[in-house]
Amino acid sequence: MFALRMLDVSSSKSSLKTDAWAKMVEDLPVNVMVCDIKTFDMVYANTSTIETLRSIEHALPIKADDLVGSSIDVFHKNPDH
Questions:
Q1: pLDDT tens digit string along 33-48?
Q2: Helix count (H) and strand count (E) of the chain?
């Protein structure tokens, strides 16, 4: 399941809410990854995601710590498709 939440961060009050959302997502006990919709590059992975991926690094083509900045295609059966 995926969810997208957009917030208006043009005011300082909204910025505080954004900081609260960011902290909440970072601390969630579930894996959360975000990719750029145009490039499909991973732009965010929360702590839970990195910890989970570290436990299966032996089966991944990249290190968990290198996920952000990589293409989501690293999870594809044929990444060069």
A1: 999 999 999 999 999 9
A2: 2, 2
